[in-house]
Write a structure and sequence with these properties.
alpha+beta, YacF-like, globular, 281 residues, 8 helices, four-stranded antiparallel β-sheet
């Protein structure tokens, strides 16, 4: 089967919060909760989430997984129909390239690593430029996908009796479905691979630090000269706490809540909570 690939190994997101150790046992990883602080970052994170979800479900032969993959693809098309995500990504790639070039003359910089990063950015920018401004048109003009999109607005609207052609396609051999879905993913790949790289650079460019939320509350004041784009709160996977993050580019408030089950409201924590804070500027 042919599946979409991530642009680079280092920007590939984990599908699950586990990592296999050499003995083959599953090991829980720390959980990072992210809060975007501007509209561009919100769009990037949503597209990354949907692309990861679509790629994950595309790896299964099950028709139900194919349904989930198609649903994620249609949500990507809906998001990119608003605004100009391609232009935003190209501007951000240019900005990142200019920032990295400033390090070329600094002592102690790994020149090979820097060249690799710049090469990746230039390749992604070239691929996105080559795709053209109307690169999503084949997917938006596809009558088959359009019919699924319109029926998806109705609860249960993609049932077999609503879309018999969709039902027929889902019952075709798995390798046929995979090949056709891979073609659709190839169309959006230049955009999504570039976003994955930009988010990786944004996350890696920040230094995490250990902090403590006194009484379960933590206030963050951001530097106006170096605006923060993304806040990351990392907690131990065994913790029964999670953060509620609110704020803007100027300031942010983190409140920690204790999980109380699906039938009760979370409880605000009044004790001190240690956590790892990463402000990605």
């Amino acid at each position: 089967m042919v599946y979409p690939r991530a642009a680079l190994d280092h920007n590939r997101r984990m599908s699950f919060n586990i990592e296999a150790n050499p003995e083959g046992l599953a090991e829980l990883l720390p959980i990072a909760y992210e809060q975007p602080l501007n509209e561009r970052m919100r769009t990037f994170l949503r597209l990354e989430f949907l692309y990861t979800q679509a790629s994950f479900h595309a790896e299964s032969d099950n028709p139900w997984s194919t349904r989930a993959a198609v649903a994620s693809l249609l949500e990507i098309l809906a998001i990119t129909a608003r605004g100009d995500a391609r232009n935003d990504v190209l501007k951000e790639l240019e900005r990142q390239s200019a920032m990295l070039k400033e390090f070329q003359t600094r002592p102690g910089v790994d020149a090979g690593r820097l060249r690799s990063l710049l090469s990746n950015i230039n390749r992604l920018r070239s691929d996105l430029n080559s795709a053209g401004g109307n690169f999503m048109a084949p997917l938006r003009d596809c009558e088959f996908l359009s019919a699924i999109k319109h029926r998806s607005a109705i609860p249960g609207g993609t049932c077999d009796f609503d879309l018999p052609d969709y039902s027929y396609w889902l019952h075709r051999p798995a390798e046929v479905r995979a090949a056709e879905f891979s073609t659709w993913m190839t169309t959006i790949r230049p955009l999504c691979d570039a976003i994955a790289e930009l988010l990786w650079l944004t996350r890696e460019n920040a230094r995490p630090k250990q902090e403590k939320a006194v009484g379960g509350v933590y206030q963050i004041q951001f530097d106006k000269e170096n605006p923060c784009q993304l806040v990351r709160i990392t907690l131990d996977p065994d913790s029964d706490l999670f953060p509620e993050i609110s704020g803007s580019q100027h300031r942010c408030t983190v409140r920690f809540l204790r999980w109380s089950g699906t039938h009760q409201r979370p409880i605000h924590v009044e004790s001190d909570v240690p956590f790892v804070l990463t402000c990605c500027a």
